[in-house]
Amino acid sequence: MEVSVKKRLLREMLFARRFEERCYEAYVERKIGGFLHLYPGEEACAHGVLEAARPGRDYVITGYRDHVHAIKCGADPKEVMAELYGKETGSSKGRGGSMHIFDAAHRFMGGYALVGGPFPLAAGMAKAIQMKGDDDIAICFLGDAANNQGTFHESLNMAALWKLPVLYVCENNLYGIGTRIDRSTAVIDQYKRACGYNMPARQVDGQDIEIVYEAAREAVDHVRSGKGPYFLELMTYRYRGHSMSDSNAYRQKDEERVWGNRDPIVILRDRLVEAGELTLEDFKNLDTEILEEIENEIIKFSEESPDPNPAELDKYVFADNDPWVRPAANGGAK
Amino acid sequence: MSQMMFWEAVRRAHDEEMARDPLVICMGEDIGVVGGTYKATTGLYDKYGPERVMDTPISENGFTGLAIGASFLGVRPIVEIMSVNFAWLAMDQIFNSAAKVRYMSGGQLEAPIVVRSPGGTAHQLGAQHSARMEKVFMGIAGLRVVTPSNPRQAYGLLKSAIRCNDPVFINEHELMYNMKGEVPDEEYFHPLEGSEIAREGRDVTLFGYNVSVHWCLAAAEVLASQHGIQAEVVDLYSLAPLDRAGIKASVSKTHRAIIVEEAEAPVGVGSEVMAIINEECFFELDAAPVRLSAANVPIPYAHVLEKAVMPKTDDIVKTVLKMLGRG
């Protein structure tokens, strides 16, 4: 990986970390409502995989921990934050919230809040790609616990059966909400479950972005070359609770310390420092620059944006003026 | 106009739309090589191939979700769920993904899928193959629900549903696929909203939908020929949204309303129509509206019990006579 790319990825991951931490603060300040699921600790997963793909062009879908994936696909962080603020300028015009970030222009096809819901949707997007004959692929990011849903099995079966161009990325952070994987799941290594559907699969370290990137390149190449789906498992850890309503009391301090010492941002930063490509001073300046950007542009934009208009409450329930719903006399179906 | 069976009308709509648009596909259990349990996709597999006429695994939530994901990218899937009982398994994707995606994305995505499925009670199919689920589907914002009562509607509603940009659930009936009726020879699109007057009358309105329209028509015939009563029969082919204006117009004319439904009474079409009558034209009423619904039991197997569940022509006739003070 080129040094310039590593430096850019370091900035992107640090930005993601600071963005999420600022979400936390805004939530505590009650600027953000609902449920809020944050990504710190898992940054190398989204960034490593999507760096190996074509963010903005390949179709990406995920669960409710979705802010960082959306931004990496090209969503404007101002609009993502404004969505969390419930503003009309938000990426989903304030109708979605944290768990439902969408940016169709950048082919970020959404965050979905039913665990396992995106598995078949991703297979369907891949079906559409296959029909159109494009060389795009569909990428579905979900956590380990989603694999205990029926949709996992139904979708992997269909994706393999029809050789659909979909990459399933399992961000294995070891917990399904507050239940540790060995207490909920008979098979701990998630990549082994894909073998049941004759799907190539691999498990790698999700904290080292260079490892993620290399594994993802292989996976993306496989899928893009028309060989069918692929399952990539990334071993990772979230540094916060499942959501903001989570006391995080179910995890052992020792475990948190071990994973805390494998911070994806620190791993990449130290590697660049050791190679003489970056100083700690540079890193500190980068951090300051990011914090200022978040405060002066993103938060400012979100604070100053207008609320949605209650008079438009039922906008977006149905298509506007669809002719097929009305009688011919009314300019509709005939 | 030519006579056509219900299944032929459904098949014709598939065929015309698939010939027109290569992004129209259909999928479901046994719809391809076998041609569909009720023959609605007969011959399409040979004509359009396995990529567009997809025999699916028995994974209702999975393949419905797959159809929805494909529709995000402009594909127009027609999903057949072999029996509406199995649609329970696909509820998650229909409700949580298809019905909500336009709204929760602020209008960025849409899910223009059609899900067709036969329901109702048929020939002793028992509790788990005799569901009447329209009441469940019609309460979900973002989902359109239509239910054809004849081959013309079956053809025209499916044509419009395929082209509509909203998700549409089409509630068909296991016993109606061999029903014959007239269908226009030229291409015909039936509006997805509204209602139809199946028989004009002035003394009482009988509201029906799908199979119960025929029960109402049979009762109206008896009322006319034996009692000199002119019952109006309104076909509520659109269950979501219900035709408030059509309900109001008919009740304002006849001043009496009976809703006949194949489903159990609680939280159903009948309760919804009664609420609309209350809201729209309460002071037009000369009598309290009545629901004639199925007994609130799982559908039994034994023929005599199965028959006892449903309202019959005679029940409708008696209810009308009582309402008019002639019972």
Could you characterize the architecture of this molecule?
- The complex is a heterodimer of chains A (334) and B (327).
- In chain A, α1 (3-28) runs antiparallel to α11 (264-274), α1 (3-28) packs across α12 (280-304) and α2 (43-52) runs parallel beside α3 (67-73).
- The model of chain A has no long low-confidence stretch (mean pLDDT 96).
- In chain A, the strands form two sheets. A six-stranded parallel beta sheet of chain A has the order 2-1-3-4-8-7, with helices on both faces. A two-stranded antiparallel sheet of chain A has the order 5-6.
- Chain A has 334 residues and is α/β, with parallel strands linked by helices.
- Chain A contains twelve helices and eight strands.
- Chain A has a single domain (3-301), classed as Rossmann fold, CATH 3.40.50.970.
- In chain A, β5 and β6 form a beta hairpin.
- In chain A, 44% of the residues lie in helices and 11% in strands.
- By secondary structure, chain B is of the alpha/beta class.
- Chain B has two domains: 2-183, 3-Layer(aba) Sandwich (Rossmann fold); 196-323, Rossmann fold.
- In chain B, the strands form three sheets. Chain B has a seven-stranded mixed beta sheet, with helices on both faces. In chain B, strands 9-11-10-13-14 form a five-stranded mixed beta sheet, sandwiched between helices.
- The longest helix of chain B is centred in the last third of the chain and has 17 residues, at 211-227.
- Chain B is globular.
- The N and C termini of chain B lie far apart (41 Å).
- The model of chain B has no long low-confidence stretch (mean pLDDT 97).
- Classes of the chains: A alpha/beta (334), B alpha/beta (327).
- At the A-B interface, α5 and α6 of A face α3, α4, α5 and α7 of B.
